[in-house]
Amino acid sequence: MAVVAAPGLDQLRVGFVGAGRMAEALAQGFIRAGKVEAQHILASAPSDRNLCHFRALGCQTTHSNQEVVQNCWLVFFATKPHVLPAVLAEVAPVVTPEHILVSVAAGISLSTLEELLPPATRVLRISPNLPCVVQEGAMVMARGRHTGNSDAELLQTLLEACGQCEEVPEAHVDIHTGLSGSGVAFVCAFSEALAEGAIKMGMPSGLAHRIAAQTLLGTAKLLLQKGQHPAQLRTDVCTPGGTTIYGLHALERGGLRAATMSAVEAATCRARELSGK
User: Fold this and answer.
1) Percent of the chain with pLDDT over 90
2) Which residues are listed for NADPH binding in this entry (predicted)?
3) Binding site per annotation, positions
4) Which CATH number covers residue 196?
5) Which of 27, 181, 209, 211 is placed for a possible disulfide with 177 were both Cys, Cβ 3.0 to 4.6 Å?
6) Which residues are known binding-site members for NADP(+)?
């Protein structure tokens, strides 16, 4: 089946090769924001284990990766990184110059994608994170050599349905994985510890966890909306001899700042190791 020229965003047909959690998060964000109609999304996977989630959203599903590429001109490849080269080899015969192919797989470089696909294929890499499912994701994208401005702008417009998306040099993609992809787990660990401090002091568990999460949400909104450096907001909360400076002193004694920096560094280094494999 030949792929027709790219229609407008209102007629966009989007494909997902791979139907795991991140693919579902992106699809759900697109649908919730009204960017893509559910029936215009086609997802493939080897089994029905994950495809059932796409069907619950009202999307079309298949077990054929080639069928996705033949019916959608914008396709997200959301497979495991070690599986992606074989999947690209499988679909390469049906890739056309009209396609825009987007890799969600960590560690697979743009040059590798271009080598595995027909010459001059338009490819991009994106690094999303799990909050895309609630349209509050933090994403970066990097474009291949043959991807034009209009292609990148279309993808960025679509991804902004799932949160914040910025175009970056490819070298920043692995750093983003350490900062924001893995950072979700780091923030959850801090939120848990924050709540447990209140539980230790006598607050009921459910209430403590709700307040901790809302504190993180409110602080993030303040930082984004005011555009302040975090140090400025931290200073605004501190009063001489008050509760906050005593708490901050305890955090500094515990090495929170250094431990957090080391966590991002370790996750980034691991992402780079995966990129080299």
Assistant:
1) 84
2) 65
3) 65, 78-81
4) 1.10.3730.10
5) 181
6) 78-81
